[in-house]
Protein: Putative ABC transport system permease protein
Organism: Gelidibacter algens
Amino acid sequence: MFSRDRWEEILEALNANKFRTFLTAFGVFWGITILVLLLALTNGLRNGVTADFGNFATNSMFIWTQQTSKPYKGLPKGRRFNFKLEDVATLKNDFPQLKYVSPRNQLGGYSGANNVVRGTKTGAFQVNGDYPEFIKQQPMDIIQGRFVSYSDIKSNRKVCVIGTGVVKGLYDKGERPLGTYIKINGVNFMVVGTFKVSNSQGDKEEDANTIFVPFTSFGQAFNFADNVGWMALTAYDGTNITTLKPQILETLKSRRTVHPEDDRAIGNFDLSEAFGRVNGLFSILGLVGYFVGALVLMSGIIGISNIMLIVVKERTKEIGVRRALGASPWMIKSQILQESLILTILSGMVGISFAAAVIWGLNYVLDMSGPVENFANPSVSMSVVFTALFILVVSGLLAGLIPANSATKMKPVDALRIE
């Protein structure tokens, strides 16, 4: 029940020594500010690092062939081999949990020998032979035209999609690439699309200097036959690709006559596993943020508790008079608890507001200055704010509990005798 007299008494008690009240409140203010800022900065790091995954299908893995490290069935150690298109079909049939199985072959490479010509201009670019679904596994923004299609695959069309780095290297400023031809290792390909890299797991500059052509056209033009040098595998959301990896590798080793215990023959990069490690790391950092912030906040709560003990001692005679006039122990205790709770919540709310202003300022600076590597959009969710409020309420009650108990243990007669 609201009592105006009670609130006036509480405000009078807090204003009795304003400097002491300010110093006491500052401990809670600083503790809750540190807690919120630590969590916001942790989220900023999480957002920045996970942004590097971009629109990658994170439930994916990439596999390629390497040299064998063990002899097997009469075949020597150090043997090189290739996947085949029939291996792709086997994976699709034997593992219905796989959403995409994208084979790839590669030619040349950025910073390698000049392999692409247009008129008088030449350049060294990476050329990938891919299937249409690969664009669903790796992020890229089509600026003009389109990506390769299954119609291109079936008809062995000599078309290509080029990155912004290729456009810059082979075309004049303002020149439109669509419908033009470039010569890759002596074979003409028509440009049907251009793309830019939105996010990349590798070198963004190298990815921008990449050319995509239909897988079948690539094999026909450059004599790769049915060889497959590289595969991207993506599982459906209900299945973790990491759990399928051992069976997939076992199947491929069996088909390519590789020793079952040869772990070096097939290279792989598990994007799902890497993404899980990143999330796990930042979950731990979040817990560390809560722990450190709670410790700082605890020092402020201890300060409030100590000050409330001093306040109770200063008001001992007043408490004795109130007890003599009929005030119950609970009435005395509730007033002390309310004073502690109000001081804690007010200083805590100011701390949350200050932290929110700092977070807004950080985001404003990031928006003005442009993206920062591995850091983006520092923020906290409303659940964190509600958690902070809950911590404040509990802390305020705990801070006032010991002083409140101390105030009610003293007998009225003894309290009136104290000078």
In short: The longest strand covers residues 98-108. The chain has two domains: 4-53+276-417, 60-272. The chain has a mean pLDDT of 80.
